[in-house]
Amino acid sequence: METYSNKEQIKDDLSRLREWSLTFTRDYGRLPAYHIQTFGCQQNDHDSEIAAGILEEAGLVPALELESSDLVLFNTCSVRANADDRFFGHVGRLKPMKQDGRPIIGVFGCMMEQLIHRDTILTSFPFVDFLLGAGAMEVLPAAILDTLEASSRKKKTLDLTKRDRDAFAEEMPVRRTRNHRALVTIMTGCNNFCSYCIVPYTRGREKSRPFEDILEEVRRAVDGGAAEIMLLGQNVNSYGNDMRRRGEESPGFPRLLEEVAQVPSLELVRYMTSHPKDLSDELIRVIGTSPKVEPHIHLPLQSGSDRILEKMNRRYTADHYLGLVRKLRDSRPGMTVTTDLIVGYPGETEEDFQATLWLMEEARFDAAFTFIYSPRTGTPAAELYDSEERDMIQERFERLVNLQNRLSLESNQKIIGKEVDVLLDGPSRRDPDIFSGRTRDDRLVNVSFPSMTSLQADPPDKNALIGQYVPVLIEKAGSFSLEGRLDKKMDTQDGADI
Ligand code: SF4
Which candidate in 63, 88, 361, 418 could, as Cys together with 35 as Cys, close a disulfide (CB 3.0–4.6 Å)? Predict the structure, then answer.
């Protein structure tokens, strides 16, 4: 297997790609443009940020639209069947666009770690130029260069998914989607093998990133304007275990979280995802006593039935889970708890489902990501899937969603009339005059600025507030978001008084 860990080699590839960009600019009178379509989780979002960083370092620019791209990348997800289907739909639509070898099309991410999907691309979408494995961003410059070289010869899709490497891709340039919310990977892979999940087969075993490298990236991100850091890993609670198993020294996740929270000028540290079986009392202490650690936890439950939890290989009971929620809420009064729930795991009975509903009421989740079980080829649970039960599962799903919508609404209603800090992300999708953002406890808020535009002839630039925490008076609550308005006079960065 080719190892792709030589940093000099990566630098060399980048500089050769830069030369290609210069030649392209001379030939076409414009800079080469790229487009990245990302499916799936925040880890994928972050891999796409690294891909964008690499491409911009090499002289490419983001395309204004897909049709004007010279390079199109797809970052795929294989956690749910609908992401697979959407990806194939998108890639198929590129075929008529491809002329004289442009755009170059590359596919990477979790789907490319599965032979079945690679074979589909190789046989049904031969106009795709190259395939890369999940998170293999350091191979990207070489893949583009290999494609350019191959384009003068007989063409076939280059399968580079077996190129392995040692380096954490975060050592590559990063083009952050939002500078004020920086994603920082602390580990990759997963050792847990939950019976429904494809991730250990696509992302491999757990590998922790060195402690100092993480802190260094956090400091750089904060210097670059990050108010919030999101520490990413499939199971952050097992951070460092792999190093300690190899006899290397490594502090665990509680210590990492504590250290990151102390980085000067950082407002808040978030983390995702936390496996309940590895949530220690020490971590609960850190969450409870560090004001800069978010007053929120995402703690996937999946099912409230011990029988189903065992079949899922989750290695905790409903009782243990509920005990954790109580300890967390005691340690940090008012903190929010969100979760993931799967309905219709193979063999789930009405009694199992009722246990999930009961636990949801007991835990009073503030929000939940709810899913109908989706069989993933290669996982143990997929063998047990019975598609005949689809109607019954759909009916259960609706009951579960209705319950969670009520719980989420009740949680959000509790903060009507309160002033909360909201980190503003920018104009909302529906109305450019309404900005969206998130509270420290991770609630989505749509913020209006009622008086400032109507009373001032020359209104201040609201965009100056993007990336800042602002005080917001909450006026309305729904199940998925809150509505509020900027609460008091405050200064923008350029000194305008709002
Ligand atoms: S903990 Fe379970 S659900 Fe999460 S990534 Fe690992 S195997 Fe998948």
Answer: 63
- Nearest Cα neighbor of 423 from 482, 469, 464 is 469
Using the predicted structure, report yes or no on whether residue 333 has a pLDDT greater than 90: yes
| Mean pLDDT value across residues 283-297 | 98
What span, in angstroms and rounded, lies between the C-alpha atoms of 108 and 135?
8
CB 139 within 8 A of CB 163: yes
Closest CA to 272 of 363, 205, 181: 181
Q: Cβ(215)–Cβ(184) under 8 Å?
A: no
Closest CA to 130 of 156, 158, 153: 158
How many CA atoms within 13 Å lie on the side-chain side of 206?
Answer: 22
Q: 379 and 448 in one domain?
A: no
Domain around 380:
327-414
- C-beta of 235 in contact with ligand 1 (< 6 A): yes
Checking if the pLDDT of 354 tops 60, the result is yes
Distance from residue 470's CA to the centre of ligand 1 (Å): 36
Angle at 215 between CA 210 and CA 219, to 5 degrees: 150
Q: State the CATH number of the domain containing residue 215.
A: 3.30.750.210
d(CA 461, CA 464) in angstroms, rounded, equals: 6
Nearest-CA residue for ligand 1 atom 4 is: 234
pLDDT over threshold 80, residue 119: yes
